[in-house]
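forwarding from the other thread:

> can someone predict this with zinc ion?

sure thing
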Amino acid sequence: MPVYVYEHTGDPGKDCEKEIEIHQEFGSDHLEKCPKCKRKVRRIIKSANFTVDHLAPTALKEKGFTKLVRRDKGVYEIEGAARDMKKPGT
Ligand SMILES: [Zn+2]
């Protein structure tokens, strides 16, 4: 089951974190209330695989960027050259 992250739109209940993770069946309705404290929540999109830090070098190149990493004093190399074989997140 996918895990969705919700955050309380106001103050969370005293037993709640500001953000809560909820297992829901794929395609089920978004929650509007926290199951614990019944306060309002909204779903937030969070994906660890989709942050700018992990943007694949190939994707950057498509956008016309080349991401350079400072490797040593005055030495730069194109990030990803050594990582191409390894997909992020695996
Ligand atoms: Zn709550």
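The beta strands are 3-8, 19-23, 41-44, 68-72, 75-78. thats all i got for now
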